[in-house]
Predict the structure.
Amino acid sequence: MTLGVPGKLTATALTGEDCNGAQAFLLRTGRFIPQQKRRKIVSMTPEAYENKKWRGLNNLQSALSRTKLGDHHYGYSSARYNKFESLSDLLEISLIVLENLDEISYSGGVNTAKEMESLADEIQYNAVQLSEISCRLKNEAERWAQSALRPIS
């Protein structure tokens, strides 16, 4: 089933047909979702994506939405996979593990436990980095507010 502008795929319900390779990808990666749990794949307009990305931070979006992040934030990764996607994947994998503990076979033994601990360590490392960014942002917000709200002399 296709919805939207004729000739353009804007939303597709996965009903068994191959949707631009989606079914093959899902089968290959083990992410094939049973029919009753499937959702429609909806593509957003660039404007809708930007609004969702900025989370209602309208003033910041207005001031900074055209500003690009420096290359040093992307690290030594491929052009397709960077630390931002890595963080998203880390969160996804962690939640999959936590929500499906009963599905994990005991055949991996100690190695499985070590992998789970490694995952937890990586989350902790990223949490520390995010906490430092949070503190810095709060300090800069206070400094900015004092500077912006200072009486003009």
